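Worked Example 4.2. Consider the chain below.
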Amino acid sequence: MVSRRNSPYDCGQLIVEITTTTFTRAKKRWRMAYAALYAVRVMLSLPKELMYKKSNYKDHSEISEDGSFGSFQALKGSQREREDSYSGLKHGAKGSAPLPYTSLDVKPSTSHDETGHYGSVPNNIDHEGLAKMVKEKDMVALRKFGGVTGITTSLGTNQKNGLPGNDVEINKRRELFGSNTYPKPPSKGLFYFVADALKDMTILILCVCAALSLAFGIKEYGVEEGWYEGGSIFVAVFIVIVVSALSNFRQEIQFNKLSKISSNIKVEVFRDRHRKEISIFDVVVGDVVFLNIGDQIPADGMFLDGYSFQVDESSMTGESDYVEVDSTKNPFLLSGAKVADGYGRMLVTSVGMNTAWGEMMSSISQESNVRTPLQARLDKLTSSIGKVGLAVAFLVLLVLLIRYFTGNTKDKNGNKEYIGSKTKTDDVLNAVVRIVSAAVTIVVVAIPEGLPLAVTLTLAYSMKRMMKDQAMVRKLSACETMGSATVICTDKTGTLTLNQMKVTKFWVGQDSIEEDNSSITPNVRELFYQGVGLNTTGSVFQPLTGSKPEISGSPTEKAMLYWVVLDLGMDMEELKPRYDIIHVETFNSDKKRSGVLIKKKDDNTIHVHWKGAAEMIVATCSRYYDTNGTVKPLDVDTRSKLEKIIQGMAASSLRCIAFAHAQISNEEIDYSDEDKTHQRLKEDGLILLGIVGLKDPCRPGVIDAVKVCKAAGVDIKMITGDNIFTAKAIATECGILKKENHLTDGQVVEGAEFRNYTDAERMQKVDNIRVMARSSPFDKLLMVQCLKQKGHVVAVTGDGTNDAPALKEADIGLSMGIQGTEFQGESIFNVTAAVNDTLIFNTFVLCQIFNEFNSRSMEKKNVFKGILGNRLFIGIVGVTIVLQVVMVEFLKKFADTEKLNVKQWVVCIVIAAVSWPLGWAVKFIPVSEDPYFRIIKKSLVRFKNIL
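Applying the procedure from the previous section yields the following structure tokens:
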């Protein structure tokens, strides 16, 4: 029977009192009915208590030894008062007569949630002081708050179970402490993009030329006819500005919508006693957040617990060195920083604008004025043409002025235009204006006003095409940058593959274990439980309904946890309480493995477990387990067989993960520092447990995308952390490598090999490399730098923090989510970007040449009549064609062009020749002899007379 002092429902005492107290028959009936109702309420309360006990609430400081919640203990005083009152009523209190009946207190005890010990919203905490303490990393202030434990209690958070998940609790915290969002700068309006388009150098020069041409034209020919040339240039400039501004404005609106989705990062928090994934915007003060390597810290907070935890605060402080975080010396975590190593849990203390990142985001601008490759080339071309045009115009101006004032120019009648003082001032001014107008015309003709329009329309078309492919481009000019890519450096997982791992192969020793794993002995099975269940950053939550377990973590961790739970029968809730975790070596892209040092509580034995890249783990082992649990020596023959097993799985596109174990004594625990504060795990003489193969299928459509890229002349290089056999298998499956390629031809290398090349060797071999396996972030960065030095426009795809250095270094960084994205290389003529640019340039020049024939006569439909008699015209056209051929075929460095083949020349000529039938068709359109403005004027007069 449960003691009355330890239970809120003392059923035994209730029954005794009912059966031993003398009542009338009617009173007994009422008491028995009441007792039945009370018993029903007690029975209904038992599942809730069992749920609390199931969730390990007995470990919480507010829970009593027998499993009842601290809130019940908090009511101990009132319980005693009821006991004393009850005793007094029964036996007669001092100074009062005993009552003829028993008083029953059947008010149910307050639940744990209602008392405020779990998830209560704090009202009296100094939140401003708390936020300032974290930003300034003030240890003195931390002690005043009572340390991390004191802050946790003040915020009403249960370290082991997090916050309640009910909306009322979360909304109260959001109202009290704010939401985890930042105010965005006002959206850019249409006029902003109009002003931005006007900053283009070509547009500015054309505007100046148009204004001068318009002024001189009106001065010389009057308003009715003098506006044609300058006005046409203004119309072309207007179309360029409108198309560019509208495209960028439309993209800005769509990009803002997309950014709300892309910035909606998912984080894992502990609510309702289990891990759950929520939006970063839904994080509130008091949340317990799980952090793994590569994660961005979602808010300011305090470190609760974890292992080997280091953060990169370079985005906040500018310091490149990683900062070590622990619960004693430095427990402060700043939002915006990234987890560089280890894993752990944090308590959120500030969100949104109250964080260090929020303050910084409100004071910086993200605008960039970097010019794209085509913009830079156009600026250079415009500048060169402008300089040459101005020089020629100045020379013409000087010659014409000298000729005029020296009396060498004559009018239509053969008379000298200038005869000294006899010439009227008005005639002199008109002559000077005519001469200046001729000089300005040279500059106007030199600047191709149609080129900016052609480029803008082409990029707008490209943007529309990319949007159909679900690729969002924020700025119109970015289409051109992506179109200029000559090399794409892509990772494997999540980009070329689906990032959906599943264990498909399992080996213990030299034996392959199929679906029936009953041949594995219990001791080996237990070691796998330890090696997977305790050496992981994932978690397993088993719902009370008995449905499929909820497993969280990275795709690799989830695959292994699913395997060990569903196939090997591991119970995580039963496993963890039996072991103490002493030290953890977390996985990162450099080490390719993770380890854990644990202590078994039953016999105090200490165990080391490693898991990671199969060939690296096998290299640390000197023995291995077979399926019977027997430890056997790992001799040369066995090691060779294991290597072949690994290579066989890798050749099947499987990611190979091996597990190793060793039992050590206390004396064998090694330390990495003299103070013996950082343990170091045993790394040699291990016993191999087994090897698993994880399948990550290729993404649908990736083979076709690679083919299109290759056809467009874009080189694809796969850079991955997997071993060389898995990397080659995936690259062959995706079409990056051909099946007949060999590892010795330099197309497949490992990161260490590439890293150890001399600078000259790297520059020589980098173009030939197709696959780089076992690479580190530094290796990927090094390859991007080499490719850029060789003149390539490099695009890098990545979906993890380890890709950040290469993404920043690349000309084009395609940062993807965990699901990756499809990509496709495309150019207008299905050629390389350099040839594509040459084709556009060549076609434009040829269009001008063909248009010269149309310009021979503005009225006659047959522009070829008498052409053979005009030797000067034929000579100019011939010289222009010869110079264009020389520029394209021989002046590669000077003109920044590429050689074209016969087929490409034919395409350019055919496109340019279209101007002849167009010019012929346009001349059939009737044109009034009256100027346009005169027609409008007459129409207005007629309309006025009618009125």
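Confidence is low (pLDDT under 50) at residues 1-9, 52-117, 817-830. The longest helix spans residues 228-262. Compare this with Example 4.1 before moving on.
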